[in-house]
Amino acid sequence: MSLNNNSKRTVFYISDSTGITVEALGLCLLSHFEGLKLKQVRMPFIDSMEKAREAVEIINATQERDGVRAILCMTVVNPNIRALFHLTGGHCLDMFGTFVNPLSCELGMPANETIGMSRRVAGAEYRNRINAINFTLGHDDGITESGLKDADVILVGVSRCGKTPTSIYLAMQFGMRVANYPIIPEDLERNALPGTLIDYKDKIFGLTIDPLRLSKVRGERRPNSRYAELENCKSEVKRAEELMRREGISMLDSTSRSVEEISSLIMQQLSFKAAKNMLLN
Amino acid sequence: MSLNNNSKRTVFYISDSTGITVEALGLCLLSHFEGLKLKQVRMPFIDSMEKAREAVEIINATQERDGVRAILCMTVVNPNIRALFHLTGGHCLDMFGTFVNPLSCELGMPANETIGMSRRVAGAEYRNRINAINFTLGHDDGITESGLKDADVILVGVSRCGKTPTSIYLAMQFGMRVANYPIIPEDLERNALPGTLIDYKDKIFGLTIDPLRLSKVRGERRPNSRYAELENCKSEVKRAEELMRREGISMLDSTSRSVEEISSLIMQQLSFKAAKNMLLN
Fold it and tell me: Which residues of B are less than 8 Å from A168 in CB distance?
């Protein structure tokens, strides 16, 4: 077998649960090898020897076809199942095999080898996340002002600057109840935030965006409109930024940041604020 | 220092990016140690020696206070930054340190040590995900039938069985355009799916739920209503399941599965269907 025939190589994401985490980690590690393009195969819910044997057959056939070893990224708790995958001769990134025994020594306790697939559904944390999603959907785009008090975060910004996907990500990933509130031309004319927001400055975050990108995004929705015109976008963004700066609102730019990055920055700033408040009280 | 004074121990999730992946992986590994409750601290965006030094000071002070070594879960690309964290003496789960060199040998190419923070924003894959979220929000709860043709997945099920959070997760995580469509009492009376759905059976998935849970969920929304009554929920679920079974729709139970699990199962079934269609054509 050739050792670096990478253009033909396949990466398998193997998990006894959803495989979402190990796929994210694998993509993250592999993204540091420039120009590398591997075929990718998800193998979730491999939670029995029988399913593992079927998966191993596919991997062996793939390695035969590719003429090169596969990369196997694995989060599998059961050591017997893991052993089957190691026998394929693929290059294994084995999360449990690598980290669980050392952790077990460090903690001075044995690891439980059963799979807790539905444990997360039963807990309060899961219900909290689902409630946060429902709250957030009910408070999108300034639909109602009644929930501002109960929101953990309020996002403001001009129309189409990325508030909705960010709100939903904050709810889904971090269980935050998010309300978002558009800054509309009337607010810009008045040069003030809507009065209802004034009491909640501590949890307000502003999103901003490059006017060129904004014009493109708006143009997809309403082609050839004043709404999407570059000059109009430039003016709205400039005035919205001035307004947010004057009101002392933390501002984040969605042009070059993903919703994951913006959400993490918001979580980070919230914990700084919480730590600061603790010190002041 | 005591070695297994676990009740006082802290785990740090350290990343040069959002830290979302390494936190998920750390939680997954640690969940296999029963009864273990560690204090958790997120340290995202540690992308310079200066930020690393500040973080290291916090970790050292925490270890001093806890009287026990911290657990450090890390995805940090820069080896100099990683080295600083190893010097704290904490128990390191070092993703890059552990896996990147072996991967580099296997692939026969060097790893790029710069951080590609905003690489994901620029790509078509990211725009696709954001478009999928917008599509999915626009096709929630049978709002419109116009998008059924363009949807990648159509979710059906009785009101409040989990369609909305699942739709959004499928869009956010997998870039799927999802329409969801409630099965309402009128459909159950007629004992048939809405006619508009008939053409799309290949991409329809049904969600079902334990009537007791459904009654509780509905009760939170409309207490003491006929809608939330246990007998009514039992009857709706039973008839909806019969209807879906007869129409040959794949059914998934949201009672004991998280949105992540249901979404992964749907993705898995879609890839099986795609593979089958390829064989048939």
Answer: 133, 168, 172
pTM: 0.90
Taking only the tens place, the pLDDT of each residue in A45-89 is 999 999 999 999 999 999 999 999 999 999 999 999 999 999 999
For residue A139, give how far its alpha carbon lies from the nearest alpha carbon of chain B (Å): 13
| Segment (H or E) for B39 | strand B39-43
* A25-43: pLDDT as tens digits: 999 999 999 888 899 999 9
CA-to-CA dists, residue B85 to A106, A211, A260, B46, B171, angstroms = 17, 40, 24, 11, 36
B122-176 pLDDT, tens per residue? Answer: 678 888 999 999 999 999 887 777 788 999 999 999 999 999 999 999 999 999 9
Laid out side by side, the sheet with B91-94 consists of B39-43, B10-15, B71-75, B91-94
Listed by start position, the domains of chain A span 7-107, 121-280
B6 contacts A112? CB cut-off 8 A? no
Interface test with B, best of A7, A91, A258 (most B CBs within 10 A): A258
End-to-end CA distance of chain B: 66
Instruction: Give the ipTM.
Output: 0.89
What is the C-alpha to C-alpha distance for residues A43 and A52, in angstroms, rounded to an integer?
10
Domain covering A7-107: architecture:
3-Layer(aba) Sandwich (3.40)
Chain B residues inside the 8 Å CB shell of A113: 32
Cα A14 to Cα A42: distance, rounded to the nearest angstrom: 6
Residue A29 in contact with partner chain B when CB distance is under 8 A: yes
- Minimal Cβ distance to A264: which of B19, B25, B119: B19
User: Using CB atoms and an 8 Å cut-off, which of residues 125-184 of chain A contact chain B?
Assistant: 126, 130, 133-134, 137, 140, 162, 164-165, 168-169, 172-173
Angle, in degrees to the nearest 10, between helices B259-280 and B163-174: 70
B6-107: which CATH architecture? 3-Layer(aba) Sandwich (3.40)
Instruction: Please determine whether the domains at A7-107 and A121-280 fall in the same fold group of CATH.
Output: yes
Number of Cβ within a 10 Å radius of residue B226? 9
Please, what CATH class does the domain formed by A121-280 belong to?
A: alpha beta
What DSSP letter does each residue of B70-116 carry, written as one string?
A: PEEEEE---HHHHHHHHTTT-EEEEHHHHHHHHHHHHHTSPPP-S--
Q: Rounded to whole angstroms, how far apart are CA atoms B136 and B114?
A: 35
Q: How far is A198 from chain B (nearest CA, A)?
A: 29
pLDDT of residue A4: 58
